[in-house]
Design goal:
75 residues, alpha+beta, Structural Genomics Hypothetical 15.5 Kd Protein In mrcA-pckA Intergenic Region, Chain A, five-stranded mixed sheet, 2 helices
Length: 75
Amino acid sequence: MASEEQIDDVSIGGDVIRLGQFLKFAGLIDSGGDAKEAIIDGYVLVNGEADRRRGRQLHDGDIVSFEGRSARVRP
């Protein structure tokens, strides 16, 4: 049986954060340029679906995944 994917809770200190910012803040991606490319290329999932909008606003409970790692937005 495959183990369930671990999801890290990441407190953003507010109500909303943009996808590109959250990728860096959560440590899923190192730089803004890398985040932009990964998002545009469709490699970043938000709540299980590819989202190509770097400026997408994330809210409490949204789950962002990239290269087998996931992080949940928390205020």
